[in-house]
Amino acid sequence: MTDPDAETTGEMIEAMEATAASLVRARDMLARRVIGQEKVVDLTLNALLCGGHALLVGAPGLAKTRLVEALGTVMGLHANRVQFTPDLMPSDILGAEVLETGADGSRTFKFIEGPVFCQLLMADEINRASPRTQSALLQAMQEKRVTIAGAERVLDKPFHVLATQNPIEQEGTYPLPEAQLDRFLLQIDVGYPDRAAERDILLATTGTEDAVAEQVFDAAGLLTAQALIRRMPVGEQVVDRILDLVRAARPGTDDTSALVKDEIAWGPGPRAAQALMLTVRARALMDGRLAPSVDDVAALAHPILVHRMALTFAARAAGRTLDDVIAALVSETLQTDIAA
């Protein structure tokens, strides 16, 4: 007589190994198009595996748009791009109803879908759009549906927003509200490549041919991987360390770390803990492991927390940065387990 639980566990392990192998291929394909940004590629893939959205922050010319285009190809997703500007209206993203006249002279309203009706939306320079337009995108990100002319329309599955933001030029921008920042699973800082990587970029992109990425996943395969992530077991120690880290970063509670009491104006809510629970699983799967560890929590602390915290005026005046605070929190709450 066979044990059904053992069969289920064996099937899950087999599915995880197959998905991990596909992820290796996907990373290799993305590396053809996006050179020298391995960490950025991994974090972006992590966000897609968790069913979330990502905010890419970096100077112009660092292959953010190229990454999203390559992701659409490799993951087999219908991708659209919107360049955000101050005069962009909600209807430019969501779509609108137009009055059509038929051949017989009859008039009817027809809905024209906007670019949000896709599976992978690149919101380029999202902070240049007005708050009204940002709020329209907020509903799409959170509820995976939009309301147009009083009617709700469900978006495609999966649906992901990869937004970009230029950290240098802030003139004429509208800072994203805390509610919208919290909807982004990760903030991904896109830095300059090192010298060797930049040399490879020069050689790969200024010749007569450009590398081509091939499809590895499709929409159904990505949805299956997302469901698999949520079934991955997480040890009690990892759960406790996630709670320790998030609660220590939150001012005004009994668990607040002494490091942040005078330096953090507002901190991460429960969504940060939820994000860590998902992303540590995805990171483990991408590395071919069957369960996450405390090391995964430490590695993902910064991209999960940095956009969910704000420094006090006194901390900014003293020259403190969120990077410093998060690094100190990781050292305080996780270092013992990492060293062990």
UniProtKB/TrEMBL annotation:
Keywords: ATP-binding, Nucleotide-binding. Residues 53-186 form the ATPase AAA-3 domain. Coiled coil: none annotated. It holds the Pfam family AAA_3. It comes from the Bacteria. One of its GO terms (molecular function) is ATP binding. SUPFAM superfamilies: P-loop containing nucleoside triphosphate hydrolases. Residues 258-326 form the ChlI/MoxR AAA lid domain. CDD domains: AAA. PANTHER family: MAGNESIUM-CHELATASE SUBUNIT CHLD (PTHR42759:SF1), MOXR FAMILY PROTEIN (PTHR42759). Belongs to the MoxR family. This is AAA domain-containing protein. The lineage of its organism: Bacteria, Pseudomonadati, Pseudomonadota, Alphaproteobacteria, Rhodobacterales.
